[in-house]
Amino acid sequence: MNGQHQIPQDEDTQLQVIKNILLTGTNKDLGEIKDILAKKDQLSHHIDPVLEDKILYIKENFDKIFGNEVDMLVDKRLAESPEQLLAIISPMLGRLIKKYIAHQFQMLRENIDQNIKQATSSQGVMGRIKAQLFGIKSSDIILSNVDAIVIKEIYVIKRHSGLVMGSYSIDNTIDRDMIGGMLTAIKAFVEDAITDEEGKGEELEMIQYGNYKIFIQNFYNYYIAVVMSGTISSAHRNDLSDKMISFAERELSTLSPKEIATNDDMISHKLKEYFS
Amino acid sequence: MISKKVILTGSFGVGKTSLFNQFVYSRFSDKYLTTIGVKVNKKVIKVKDRDLSILLWDIAGEVSQDKVPVSYFLGASGIIYVFDLTRPTTHKNIAEDIEYLKGLLPDGVVKIVGNKSDLLGKDQIEKVVADMPLHCDVITSAKTGDNVEELFQVIGSELIDL
User: Fold this and answer.
1) Would you tell me which of A29, A203, B12, B114 could form a disulfide with B61, CB atoms 3.0–4.6 Å apart?
2) How far is the alpha carbon of B25 from chain A, nearest alpha carbon, in Å?
3) Would you identify the CATH topology of the domain B2-159?
């Protein structure tokens, strides 16, 4: 038995011996790796180039890799909290509006300066005398010169049905039947909804939105609606009202309700002649 | 071209706006959005070889018609009274409602329409219609578009000669 390896009898010891034989080289490598991992500088030296390449790749292909996820996240955030979006864009909008108002004020100031210069001229003095005689405010005259009045559209509309009996428009953009119908519906809604015992019989006479105004002159079977833009003074409003009444007297009062309903072309032509 | 104002009225949720959208735009949506006030649109149809412009007023639904502002009905040549075939409460007051509407518009053409036919079988529809106190003129489905065009042809052919 001498000269031969003694085989340990214990099972654990036998396994350890096999491990030592098989992992002699590997243990050495593992030791080196452990050293590298333990020393930050060495680890960094090995990993940094790989990470840098990966970061560069992600930077260049971010949209492709994460685009969908980012979009979904943004959509989700916005859906959950629209206020957040408002909070972000409001200051920007505020600045834009402030800038726009400043610009408009500048323009207004320049126009008023010009008007004051004109006011001191002989023509201006005549205008002021006219204003005094007819009771028109100087501010109305100055403002009306700054922002000229334009009649955009005129409609003669059947009172209850909203059917258009005649119309004139400087640009035929919207379906006139739709305007007649919707205007009548709005009128009916307002007159019905906003009223009390004292206000019974009151009628809608004006709608304003932005720089536009719709003046309504009510008659028994129909009403005339004039869409205008610009600065409209109370004097202009009165003039327009007189003009609408005189149009109705001259051109429509002689026609029977049936003639009014069936003479669309004639009424439209008269409107153009009268108001353009 | 001849133009006529036509009112779509009836209880809430019966499908007036769906009929309106199906007729004007040929579209249907399952979403229920209640109408506030009134919505107006128009469509030109060919009736007896003539063009007829129908100005259609889609009125917010009310349980009974005397709750609707009278001004909406005035000047209308035709009235389409819509009820839901699946909800008896929507035609419970039909006799009183029609009498009221005929009082407001003695010369108006009135059509009674049972809508949502796609939700019932033929026998069920026949039973609902037979149990009603008034004759139902047209059975429609705003969802499938069934009889919608026909409804406006029927009312249009009576309106064009008024």
Assistant:
1) B12
2) 15
3) Rossmann fold (3.40.50)
